[in-house]
Amino acid sequence: MNKIVGVELSHRFAPLAVREKLALNKEQTVKALHQLKEHYDEVFIISTCNRLSIYAYGPSCQEILAFFDTFGNYRQYLSILPETEIAVRNLFSTAAGLESQAIGEHQILGQIKDALDLARKEKTIGPITDELIRIAIHIGKQVRLETNIGKYSASLATVGFELIEKHGYDLPNTEILVIGTGNMANLVTTVLDRTEIKRLYIASHNKERAEEMAKEWGGEAVDIKNIHEPLAKSGIIIGGTQGEINLLSEEEMGSSKCPRADLALQSGSEKLFIDFGVPRNFNPELKNHPNINLYDLDDIKKITYEGLLKRYDEIPKARKLVNEEVNWYLEWLKNRKVAPVIEAYWNNLEKIKEEELKWLLPKLGDISEHQVDVLNRFVHRLLRKISKPSIESLKEMSQNLEEVDNPINTAKKILDVDININIPKKTFIVGTRGSKLALTQTNWVIEQLKKIAPQYNFETKIIKTSGDQGNIDVVGAFTSAIQRAMLAGEVDLAIHSFKDLPTEDVNGLRVIPVTKRENHHDAFISKTGLPFHQLPAGSIIGTGSLRRIAQMKALRNDLEYKFIQGNVDSRLHKLHTEEYDAIVLASAGLHRLNMQDVITHEFSDNEMLPAVGQGILAIETIDKEGELMEIIKNLRHMPTKFAADAERAFLIALGGGCNQPMACYAHVEDETIHITGFFANDEHEVYERASMSGLVKDRRILAGRLAQFLQGKVQAKINATVKS
Question: Which of 275, 468, 500, 581 is labelled catalytic?
Answer without folding.
Answer: 500
